[in-house]
From TrEMBL, chain A:
Signal sequence bounds: none
Catalysed transformations (reactions): L-threonyl-[protein] + ATP = O-phospho-L-threonyl-[protein] + ADP + H(+); L-seryl-[protein] + ATP = O-phospho-L-seryl-[protein] + ADP + H(+)
Species for this entry: Rhodocollybia butyracea
Keyword terms, alphabetized: ATP-binding, Kinase, Nucleotide-binding, Serine/threonine-protein kinase, Transferase, tRNA processing
Domain Protein kinase, residue spans: 10-243
GO CC annotation terms, alphabetical: cytosol; EKC/KEOPS complex; nucleus
Gene3D superfamilies: Phosphorylase Kinase, domain 1, Transferase(Phosphotransferase) domain 1
Family, similarity comment: Belongs to the protein kinase superfamily. BUD32 family.
The name this protein goes by in its record: non-specific serine/threonine protein kinase
GO molecular function, one term: ATP binding
Automatic annotation (TrEMBL), chain B:
Cofactor: a divalent metal cation
GO MF: metal ion binding; tRNA N(6)-L-threonylcarbamoyladenine synthase activity
Keyword tags: Acyltransferase, Cytoplasm, Metal-binding, Nucleus, Transferase, tRNA processing
Binding residue positions for a divalent metal cation: H129, H133, Y150, D325
UniProt binding sites for substrate: Y150, V151, S152, G153, G154, D182, G197, E201, N297
Enzyme nomenclature, EC number: 2.3.1.234
Location, primary (coarse class): cytoplasm
Oxidoreductase among keywords: no
Any one Pfam family match given in the protein's UniProt record, by short name: TsaD
Protein name from the UniProt record: N(6)-L-threonylcarbamoyladenine synthase
PROSITE patterns tied to this protein: GLYCOPROTEASE
Amino acid sequence: MALSLSQSLIRASLPISQGAEAKVYKAQLSETSLPILLKYRFQKHYRHPSLDNNLTRTRIAGEARALLKCLRSGVNVPGIRMVDAAEGVLGIEWIEGQSLRKLLGGTEEEGDDLDVEATDTELENPLKDYGVSVEELMKLVGIEIAKMHKIDVIHGDLTTSNMMLRRPKSVESTLAAELVLIDFGLSYQSTLTEDKAVDLYVLERAFSSTHPDSEPMFATVLVAYANVMDKDWPAIRNRLEDG
Amino acid sequence: MPGKTRHSPLKNADRDYLALGLEGSANKFGAGIMKHSKDGSTTVLSNIRHTYITPPGEGFQPRDTALHHREWALKVIDECLVKSGVSMHEIDCICFTKGPGMGAPLQSVALIARTLSLLFNRPLVGVNHCVGHIEMGREITGAQNPVVLYVSGGNTQVIAYSRQCYRIFGETLDIAVGNCLDRFARIIDLSNDPSPGYNIEQEAKKGKRLVSLPYATKGMDISLSGILSAVEAHTLDKKFRSKGASDNSLEEDIITPQDLCFSLQETVFAMLVEITERAMAHIGSKEVLMVGGVGSNERLQQMMAIMAQERQGQVFAMDERFCIDNGIMIAQAGLLSYRMGYETPLAKTTCTQRFRTDEVHVAWRA
């Protein structure tokens, strides 16, 4: 059987990581083009085949739709490069940069809930390369989340691993640092205050479990978030404080 | 965690210990006697259960279930003692289910436990039902660091151990998976003997058309009530044949009760396997332990095995003796905490319908 285009693209790509849901590859659409990131939702053999097909298709389409909505409204997310919902493949812009978890010297992802051991606390400040302070970075986080919530997109899995700081073109670059939200695999659309508050709550939990003494950091995120959300903020704050 | 050994806070038994476990949080009354020997071995001396079975189309009401437990308790405990060859005077502690579960049945069992405690002057140990399931599962299967899927008529949780606590990673946001299956069994008039879930499983084997049902996972949580409504709606469809397909029928475009059982299982179990896999990926465990009544479903075990195999992992499942509510699991968890010096004073032997798994201090593990 001949391989589909998506499948042969995957064959020629470099595997990056594998999660529970998907495999991630670094690929190139043509020899001269910029690299892209392929997210392949592989088949789950435990599921009934037609159920599996349907789920994969709707999830890929849903993720692409959320990204598109964000792109149109100027939320910093990776651009879409290709969508093959039937095959379960989504191709997005390759972001040169570093995840916030690493930048903030967070603990390792694997087994972070069992036996946490600080690994690289002595790492020298990796933020210097990006020309931002922790405080500024937290402001960027708050602003991006608020921009996303303004258009009723709920991320569903806000953690510091799902945020990246784009590497500036040069060290002396005058361009402001850009924070990019990634992995919209669990995202959905909702206008509910509750859902937005839950999104923030998930992030707060992620902060406290991966970054020690994160309380002032998260407070900065909220201040910036509140500024953008403006009149929508009090309702969300109430919901968040209710727990 | 692999590669790390920690000393268990539980000291080796200085003598043989015996515990009587009493369970009655739902429609089963169970009694079991567990022995922890000086040589470190653990023996199930007896494990007796009696189930309250209601007519087709009916669930079990708290009041009637409590009556059932009161009627059967002494017979079951008697049989349990005779079978084990142990007398009440040799027992070290009496363990009972403190919760979670149905109020009235829990109370009647707690009352029996208190009476025995006063009659024979033995200490009481209140046990969390879910922790009982997990500890018994780990004892029977020998799983080392499993992600636990606890699925029963009243509970649906994905659990993993961390720092002396069984943490809940995901759970149902509304009804339990067993409850969803049982209620659908009632809708299509399946028998409650031996259990509605077992009969759904048998019917599902004859189903072949997959009807579309909602699929509701939210991170590591799931929602089931909407699926129950959706599958019930299919029984009102014009295409639904409550008697099944007639033998000489050429009709293709129909839905039979068997198809609905099949579709319900396929959808709901896929959701359970998905959240379990997510938890495994999250904590980096390669083992799954299934406990609770629904855990004895062979299709669920099969799906879980495929998932685990694809991750180079392993599934630990048990048969109905230990999966479905039983007294021995209460004895096991109770005896572990008794050996750590824990007793429940009489004034605190109340029970509670709400008692989350993560509220228990798991003192006996490192």
